[in-house]
């Protein structure tokens, strides 16, 4: 319509394009798992916005909290601590293993990465930071130095001391053996030998997502994180876990690190904790807090410990525990996964299905025999799915087929999962016809 034409003309003229291509839809409202467009089309949101709207869009209890705090206690000087901040910090500590007792709150994932890295540097007195070669920790300068899928090109030097570690990519690892198993232990030995050679003797921390999401839904195999944690300890490094996407129930446990049995030294949460509002957290031990303080730690950003978003985070955690959302994520995740495995039997271009709970991915191949990566097919299916009413997301890394990411809200119904799978089926059939 001419309304749409003028919308896109104005968008083009006034909204600075940051390199993100716009999808051809104009969403005018969102509720639960559904987005509604200006021409009354409904779209199922299988990405929870930008992986954030954990309880669906505009959950009534979140709306009520926002209304209450916007109207009565929105934002203060950063050194005025409020009830919602203490409540959220206390509630988080009840869910975390005992040593991770203390938390503070910021706005974004990038910001929480910056804070965690700074704390690791202060505590250890060292400066080298190791990250997986496919991990995503944000796009500010420090976090962006530890981010590999996007945003590195032409940005000048990264932070001194940023070192890359081979990401555990079972599907295509050169350490896959002839019988199809994955020799991750040898790969890890190799990774550490490269780190130990490159290091100038100042290893401060390893930062990792428990499941690498933007890097293509890569879940380290069983035992991997336990060994990683032990290798960090051996070298006097802290282990920082970034649970921006995996935290707060999405993978079927409150935190994804719980699947592995390790306890990180520092935990960051963001996207899911704020359920679509800008909230992030950094949690650590009393001992690390003390060490940072002695080394002169200062973190004072404008929205440090804001009451409004802290109240939202506290409500999100309350709902996740009260409504048994971890169990729901597990059940709906298994349903989604079994549907994706059926699609894999039907369509040759699905090379791999992987993920946990309601964070699932499918990797596209362009050749059923050689299993060569199929990045274009992934994009084509995603475009078609959006056209048919399903929003999903594709990530493309060099040497990897396009990877579809599916991360519906944990409030998604069994019927909505079936509907999404039906749309995906249609999209595959269309693209391959
Ligand atoms: N860490 C992880 C694991 C992420 O997925 C993201 C966002 N994709 C970030 C950090 C950065 O968060 P933000 O975009 O809120 O700065």
TrEMBL record:
Keywords: Aminotransferase, Pyridoxal phosphate, Transferase. The keyword Nuclease does not apply. InterPro entries: Aminotrans_3, Aminotrans_3_PPA_site, PyrdxlP-dep_Trfase, PyrdxlP-dep_Trfase_major, PyrdxlP-dep_Trfase_small. The keyword Transferase applies. It comes from the Eukaryota. Coiled coil: none annotated. GO terms for molecular function: pyridoxal phosphate binding; transaminase activity. GO terms for cellular component: mitochondrion. Belongs to the class-III pyridoxal-phosphate-dependent aminotransferase family. This is Aminotransferase class-III.
């Amino acid at each position: 319509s001419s309304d749409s034409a003028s919308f896109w003309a104005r968008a083009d003229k006034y909204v600075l394009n940051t390199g993100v291509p716009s999808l051809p839809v104009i969403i005018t409202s969102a509720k639960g798992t559904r987005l509604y467009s200006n021409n009354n089309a409904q779209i199922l949101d299988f990405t929870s916005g930008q992986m954030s709207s954990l309880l669906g869009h505009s959950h009534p209890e979140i709306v009520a909290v926002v209304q209450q705090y916007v109207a009565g206690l929105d934002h203060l000087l950063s050194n005025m601590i409020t009830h919602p901040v203490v409540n959220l910090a206390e509630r988080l500590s009840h869910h975390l293993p005992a040593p991770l007792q203390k938390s503070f709150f910021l706005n974004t994932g990038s910001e929480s990465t910056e804070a965690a890295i700074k704390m690791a540097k202060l505590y250890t007195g060292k400066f080298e930071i190791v990250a997986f070669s496919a991990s995503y920790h944000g796009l500010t300068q420090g976090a962006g130095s530890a981010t590999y899928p996007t945003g590195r090109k032409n940005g000048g030097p990264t932070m001194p001391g940023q070192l890359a570690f081979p990401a555990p990519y079972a599907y295509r690892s050169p350490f896959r053996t002839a019988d199809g198993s994955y020799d991750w232990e040898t790969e890890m030995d190799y990774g550490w030998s490269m780190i130990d050679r490159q290091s100038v003797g100042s290893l401060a921390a390893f930062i990792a997502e428990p499941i690498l999401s933007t890097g293509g839904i890569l879940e380290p195999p069983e035992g991997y994180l336990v060994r990683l944690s032990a290798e960090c300890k051996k070298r006097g490094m802290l282990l920082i876990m970034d649970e921006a996407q995996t935290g707060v129930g999405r993978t079927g446990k409150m935190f994804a690190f719980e699947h592995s049995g390790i306890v990180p030294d520092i935990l960051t949460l963001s996207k899911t904790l704020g359920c679509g509002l800008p909230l992030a957290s950094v949690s650590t031990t009393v001992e690390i807090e003390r060490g940072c303080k002695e080394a002169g730690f200062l973190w004072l950003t404008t929205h440090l410990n804001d009451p409004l978003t802290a109240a939202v985070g506290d409500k999100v955690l309350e709902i996740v525990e009260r409504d048994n959302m971890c169990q729901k994520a597990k059940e709906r995740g298994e349903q989604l996964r079994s549907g994706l495995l059926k699609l894999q039997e039907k369509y040759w271009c699905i090379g791999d299905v992987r993920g946990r709970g309601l964070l699932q991915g499918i990797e596209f191949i362009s050749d059923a025999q050689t299993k060569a990566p199929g990045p274009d097919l992934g994009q084509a299916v995603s475009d078609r799915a959006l056209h048919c009413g399903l929003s999903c997301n594709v990530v493309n890394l060099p040497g990897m087929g396009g990877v579809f990411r599916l991360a519906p809200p944990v409030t998604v119904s069994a019927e909505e999962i079936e509907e999404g799978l039906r749309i995906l089926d249609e999209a595959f059939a269309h693209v391959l016809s």
